[in-house]
Amino acid sequence: MSRAGKHTPPTLSNATAAAVLPALARNELRLTAHRRSVLGALEEAERPLATDEVVAAVGAPVSTVYRILAELVDAGVVARVAGAGGGDRHELAEEFSRHHHHHLVCTGCGIVVDFEPSRQLERLIEREVAALSDSSGFEVSHHLFDMRGHCRECSSAANG
User: Fold this and answer.
1) CATH number for 10
2) How many whole angstroms from its chain centre is CA 87?
3) What tens digit of pLDDT does each residue of 94-134 get?
4) How far is 63 from 154, CA to CA, in rounded Å?
5) Mind giving me the DSSP string for 12-77?
6) Of 72, 63, 18, whose CA–CA distance to 41 is shortest?
7) Residues near 30 by beta carbon (within 8 Å), at least 6 away in sequence
8) Quick one: 93 and 106 in the same domain?
9) How many CB atoms lie within 10 A of CB 14?
């Protein structure tokens, strides 16, 4: 919020705006002010956001944010991350965030946190994917790796 009490929408970087334009155009979508704000909120976030967090950041009606997120997922610009208990979260697709990562998903509170895998883990995953592709004939385009458990706060609450 600004000092005058008006909501200041998140800012989408020019580089990301330019990168998403072709994907939006393929889906006959324009980069409207609301879409720009939703993408800006996801770009600024340090983790995948729940829809209510996007609504709070953007200041748009809930129905508008739900519709925009669905359009952006369909366009491949935003990725849906399955949270615990069906609480989906959203983030910029890796192609646009230029940040390869995986997720830690808390099954207690539902928070989803990004983590960057070590090069050793990525090599192991790549080897397993190649072996799976060779044995099954399945052509893998990308992989997702989420680990589920309890975050520090939920672990402390359960043990305290």
Assistant:
1) 1.10.10.10
2) 13
3) 889 877 888 898 888 888 888 888 899 989 988 999 999 99
4) 31
5) PPHHHHHHHHHHHHHTT----HHHHHHHHHHHH-SS-EEHHHHHHHH---HHHHHHHHHHHHHTTS
6) 72
7) 24
8) no
9) 8
Q: How does pLDDT run along the chain (160 residues), one tens digit per residue?
A: 444 556 788 999 999 999 999 999 999 999 999 999 999 999 999 899 999 999 999 999 999 999 999 999 999 999 998 877 767 899 999 889 877 888 898 888 888 888 888 899 989 988 999 999 999 999 888 788 888 999 999 988 877 6
Say whether both 81 and 122 belong to one domain: no
Q: Which tokens belong to 149?
A: 């458990």
Domain housing 114 = 100-160
pLDDT at 31 (0 to 100): 97
Q: Which of 98, 124, 150 is the last residue of a domain?
A: 98
Contact indicator for 101, 117 with CB cutoff of 8 Å: yes
pTM equals 0.80
| Domain boundary residue, one of 98, 125, 148 | 98
What is the C-alpha end-to-end distance of the chain, expressed in Å? 36
Q: 117 and 129 share a domain?
A: yes
Tell me the two tokens of residue 122. Answer: 């990525």
